[in-house]
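User: Structure with 6-hydroxymethylpterin-diphosphate, tokens only please.
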Amino acid sequence: MVGVVNVTPDSFSDGGRWRTPEDAIAKALELVDEGADIVEVGGESTRPGSTGVSADEESARIGPVLQELCPRAGVPVAVDTAKPEVARLALGLGTRVINDVTGLRLLDADGLPALAVLAASAGASLVVMHMRGDPGTMQTDPRYEDVVRDVGEALAGAALAAEAAGVERARIAIDPGIGFGKTLEHNLELLRRVDALAARGYPVMIGVSRKSLFQKLLGLAVEERLEAGIAAAVAAVLRGARLVRTHDVRATARALRMAEALL
Ligand code: HH2
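Assistant:
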């Protein structure tokens, strides 16, 4: 399980909660105590409608956290970024996983996916997530011919490009990007068909915690979404997801331990 700490003023679930590096580090260590196998730090919100921040701003947010957290965490630390400058800084500070919500969109001068090249040179792992469009516009009428097939093909293509850039296959996970350029029905279909994504041959990560699909489906405000998030995470794991990304580690870890005992 991947525990999430966003050091942003505006993330939809925990924005502004961890105002100082000390607060963010304490929260990350708490998530490790609660059972996170990986702890992820993000310095830019990608919530629908967000416009992004500069690499300098993102680096200034996460640098002091990673510097102290990486040697102390006792588990691998991940960074949630799409920017090579930020990923380079994070890897230099000891981060072991790059989580790219753009699915390796950015290419370097050689035409290779820039974040995959960086991960390969550091021997780091890579999460390739699917997003249609960008956060500013992604929820404006997203369309797919067949969402499970289209997302699966895009992810498999990006994962192969990462391998071609030198990332070991065993170090790549794919993530359908629940809520990133998808309607409620698209999200539900992807969650129902995690098995089809897993059949692409890479471990599947699912991030649902506190997302707006619970508002759309069940009318729940962001602070009311814990149980629904756990149910979705458990269902995803029973259908073949190998990694769950969550803000609610303790409760999700308990539920997943129980579910996994029944697999
Ligand atoms: N979801 C968010 C951000 N990064 N990465 C992966 N691999 N999968 C996800 O589902 C995913 C992700 C959005 O959640 P959060 O980080 O809490 O919000 P924000 O983008 O507002 O910081």
